[in-house]
């Protein structure tokens, strides 16, 4: 939430797209938003594939000034549509994975998936060499990345 506010200091109202998978993220986002001066318009999406055009229209009608898409594997295949609709509706769109920014969203901040996949490969290698999965330590991601799509950020003339 702080990165969103730092990137878009004049924004006060943010639509947040979430689903059953990202409900815990939604609760945390609700908890932290007031501390950075943001009011949220929570939009729970149901029944995949999600009707993102409807969600963006609802966000615009609710006077959202930006959209935050929480992390869910259901949203991910629709990342190009998320980016396109954000541009079309003129709502800066912020997401949790770099692939969204590569698709055209304004900004992303989250774990580096390539690094996480490498870590999975190391675990699989250990298991194949005889390690017991229950005895392997649980690891948290250590690499995060912030991407800003400069083409999207550039004001249109």
Write structural notes for this entry.
The structure is a single chain. With 157 residues, this protein is an alpha/beta fold. 39% of the residues lie in helices and 18% in strands. The chain contains 7 helices and 6 strands. The chain has helices at residues 2-7, 23-32, 52-61, 79-88, 98-103, 113-128, 150-153; strands at 13-18, 39-44, 66-69, 93-95, 107-111, 144-148. A 6-stranded mixed β-sheet has the order 2-1-3-4-5-6, sandwiched between helices. Helix 2 links the parallel strand 1 and strand 2 (39-44). The longest helix is centred in the C-terminal third of the chain and has 16 residues, at 113-128. The chain is elongated and about 55 Å long. The mean pLDDT is 94.
Strand-pairing-aware structural class? alpha/beta
Lateral arrangement of strands in the main beta sheet: 2-1-3-4-5-6
The main sheet comes to: 6 strands, mixed
Quantity of strands, as a count: 6
Distance between the termini: 29 Å
* Helix content, binned percent: 25-40%
List unreliable stretches of 5+ residues: none
Overall geometry: elongated
Average pLDDT works out at 94
Strand content: 15-25%
Order of helices and strands: HEHEHEHEHEHEH
Please give the count of helices: 7
What is the gyration radius calculated from CA atoms?
A: 17 Å
């Amino acid at each position: 939430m702080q990165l969103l506010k730092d990137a878009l200091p004049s924004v006060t109202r943010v639509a947040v797209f979430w689903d059953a998978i990202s409900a815990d993220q939604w609760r945390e986002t609700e908890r932290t938003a007031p501390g950075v001066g943001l009011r949220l318009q929570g939009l729970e999406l149901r029944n995949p594939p999600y009707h993102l055009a409807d969600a963006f229209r609802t966000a615009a009608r609710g006077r959202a000034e930006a959209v935050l898409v929480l992390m869910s594997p259901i949203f991910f295949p629709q990342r190009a549509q998320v980016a396109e609709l954000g541009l079309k509706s003129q709502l800066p769109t912020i997401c949790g994975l770099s692939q969204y920014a590569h698709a055209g969203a304004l900004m992303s901040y989250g774990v580096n998936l390539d690094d996480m996949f490498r870590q999975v490969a190391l675990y699989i290698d250990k298991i194949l060499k005889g390690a017991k999965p229950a005895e392997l330590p649980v690891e948290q991601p250590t690499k995060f990345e912030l991407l800003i799509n400069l083409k999207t950020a550039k004001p249109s003339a």
